[in-house]
Specification:
It is built from three helices and nine strands. A hairpin with a 6-residue loop joins β7 and β8. It has two domains: 82 residues, Ubiquitin-like (UB roll), CATH 3.10.20.90; 96 residues, Roll (Ubiquitin-like (UB roll)), CATH 3.10.20. The strands form two sheets. A five-stranded mixed sheet has the order 6-5-9-7-8, with helices on one face. It starts with 35 loop residues before the first helix and ends with a strand. It is 17% helix and 27% strand.
């Protein structure tokens, strides 16, 4: 095979200053996948590097860089940060630097959170809000009859805020919204008289009874719609 023939450094077009070379004493005719450097290389592919800044750091401060396996959890990441910084796990929480949203689901893996190599997070010192619990906004929506208002598909009336667990099902969310509506309007309706929608810059898909809120990309101040049948 050509790659096993003797070569000089100049034959490698990708060689650059600071490049890392793997040197291993082994049988060149052995199983390629059993070479130690190959196993370590494959292991590195499964890792991502996260950049973290503390909230009181200056913008030009050198970030903390931590390398983690993609399938490790946010809880494990917090422990790694604690080991690196000496800050107790219970004394800080994490937010996404791009939108300042607190990361609450500590049992999700890094890959499930959509983290890629070089993602920027922020360490916020202090007590976190309840992990896995979110404050959501609930509004009553009504479809607008065609022709009533130009370019308006529905009207939206704020109902209030709810604190919900990410483990809640769609059915229990509907029950909680029903209780809030009845309390605010001094009337009794049942939860089968409306649907709950999860908007994404639109009218939103219906939240089914068996849906789990954590699967709906939960964050604080997320909007949910109460839509009467």
């Amino acid at each position: 095979m050509d790659w096993r023939k003797p070569k000089i450094v100049g034959d490698f077009g990708s060689m650059q200053h600071g490049v890392t070379l793997f040197v291993e004493e082994n049988d060149p005719k052995g199983n390629f996948d059993e070479y130690r450097w190959k196993r370590e290389f494959d292991s590195e592919i499964e890792k991502i590097t996260l950049n973290l800044n503390q909230a009181d750091d200056l913008d030009d401060a050198e970030p903390i860089r931590i390398k983690m396996d993609r399938n490790e959890t946010i809880k494990q990441l917090k422990q790694a940060i604690s080991d690196r910084t000496g800050i107790s796990v219970d004394s800080f929480y994490l937010v996404r630097k791009s939108n300042s949203q607190e990361i609450k689901d500590i049992n999700k893996t890094l890959v499930a959170m959509g983290f890629s190599n070089g993602v920027n997070l922020k360490i916020i010192k202090g007590q976190a809000k309840k992990e896995g619990v979110y404050d959501i906004n609930v509004s009553i929506v009504k479809l607008v009859d065609e022709g009533d208002k130009d370019n308006v598909l529905f009207t939206q009336e704020p109902l209030g805020k709810l604190e919900v667990s990410g483990e809640l099902t769609g059915f229990l969310l509907r029950e909680a919204i029903c209780c809030m509506y009845n309390g605010k309007h001094n009337k009794e309706i049942s939860s089968d008289q409306f649907r709950v929608r999860c908007p994404q810059n639109d009218f939103g898909a219906v939240v089914n009874d068996l849906d789990i809120l954590d699967d709906l990309n939960m964050f604080d101040d997320k909007d949910f719609f109460m839509h009467f049948n």
